[in-house]
């Protein structure tokens, strides 16, 4: 299938106006089947649900994959640039663990509405998260767990620091974003270039040891090549506000690759250890940033750690 034809299919799938129904599976159209097959989200023996949550003036696309007899639900959040289609390995693993998996495309990402790759305030991500949680709790019984990668992890961290009462038994953040690599250079570039530009060109980094995944990212039609300065400003303002956040008694679980060059992981772990003194921190040896899409041995270790965390009392 040529690129233009697939773009039309993506546009058709994104035009879905039905609110997410976590109880009734979504009938599979030819367009939806093509989308699921392309992103390897066509899991056998799992029901598929697709719909929207309208929040903060935007239409957010939500999906759920559910095994026949689930014993819990995981809300899974992706990172910046990504979307549900980058979580196929994590979803498959969690389905094998008999968990429903709820995932939504962040605003400006994937099939969701909003300005591409941008938000005016990081709190907007929290508003969307709360809306999805509310719908999920209304329709599904617990227990509930939350796992967030990179920016998805930052969204969960922000949520925990501002919402002391939440429905999750365990919260896991994987390679969480607090500061990106070359943070000071990024901030300086923002102030220097903002008067002349609206954003900065994206550099495709080798953030996984899996060459097939790197190739997939470059060919993914739902990728975008410019980082808006609006988003970078929102991240900078969020960083400032997080410094003043109260210390949390939450038992946050953090998984971090020790050769990650996308986030400033040493600073980030130090920051999180201060904000979450009861947290548990695990370094993944030879892990780069995209731990859910690493080579097999590293990915299996990540999922083994997640299973141990979820099964802890």
UniProtKB/TrEMBL annotation:
<keyword id="KW-0378">Hydrolase</keyword>
<protein>
    <submittedName>
        <fullName>Alpha/beta hydrolase</fullName>
    </submittedName>
</protein>
<dbReference type="InterPro" id="IPR051044">
    <property type="entry name" value="MAG_DAG_Lipase"/>
</dbReference>
<dbReference type="GO" id="GO:0016787">
    <property type="term" value="F:hydrolase activity"/>
</dbReference>
<dbReference type="InterPro" id="IPR022742">
    <property type="entry name" value="Hydrolase_4"/>
</dbReference>
<feature type="domain" description="Serine aminopeptidase S33">
    <location>
        <begin position="69"/>
        <end position="294"/>
    </location>
</feature>
<dbReference type="Pfam" id="PF12146">
    <property type="entry name" value="Hydrolase_4"/>
</dbReference>
<dbReference type="InterPro" id="IPR029058">
    <property type="entry name" value="AB_hydrolase_fold"/>
</dbReference>
């Amino acid at each position: 299938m040529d690129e233009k034809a697939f773009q039309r299919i993506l546009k058709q799938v994104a035009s879905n106006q039905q609110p997410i129904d976590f109880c009734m599976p979504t009938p599979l159209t030819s367009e939806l089947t093509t989308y699921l097959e392309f992103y390897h989200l066509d899991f056998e023996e799992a029901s598929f649900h697709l719909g929207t949550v309208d929040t903060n003036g935007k239409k957010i696309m939500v999906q759920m994959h559910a095994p026949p007899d689930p014993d819990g639900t995981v809300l899974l959040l992706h990172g910046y640039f990504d979307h549900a289609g980058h979580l196929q390995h994590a979803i498959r693993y969690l389905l094998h663990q008999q968990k429903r998996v709820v995932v939504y495309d962040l605003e400006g990402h994937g099939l969701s509405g909003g300005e591409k790759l941008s938000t005016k305030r990081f709190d907007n991500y929290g508003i969307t998260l709360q809306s999805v949680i509310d719908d999920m709790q209304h329709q599904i019984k617990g227990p509930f767990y939350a796992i967030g990668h990179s920016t998805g992890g930052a969204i969960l961290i922000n949520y925990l620091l501002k919402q002391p009462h939440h429905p999750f038994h365990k919260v896991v953040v994987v390679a969480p974003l607090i500061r990106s690599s070359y943070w000071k250079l990024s901030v300086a570039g923002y102030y220097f270039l903002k008067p002349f530009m609206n954003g900065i060109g994206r550099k495709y980094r080798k953030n996984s040891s899996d060459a097939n995944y790197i190739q997939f990212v470059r060919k993914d039609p739902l990728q975008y090549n410019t980082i808006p300065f609006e988003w970078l400003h929102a991240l900078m303002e969020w960083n400032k506000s997080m410094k003043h956040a109260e210390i949390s008694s939450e038992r946050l679980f953090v998984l971090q690759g020790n050769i990650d060059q996308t986030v400033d992981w040493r600073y980030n772990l130090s920051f999180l250890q201060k904000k979450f003194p009861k947290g548990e921190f695990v370094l993944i040896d030879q892990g780069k940033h995209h731990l859910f899409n690493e080579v097999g041995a590293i990915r299996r270790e990540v999922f083994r750690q997640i299973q141990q965390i979820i099964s802890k009392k």
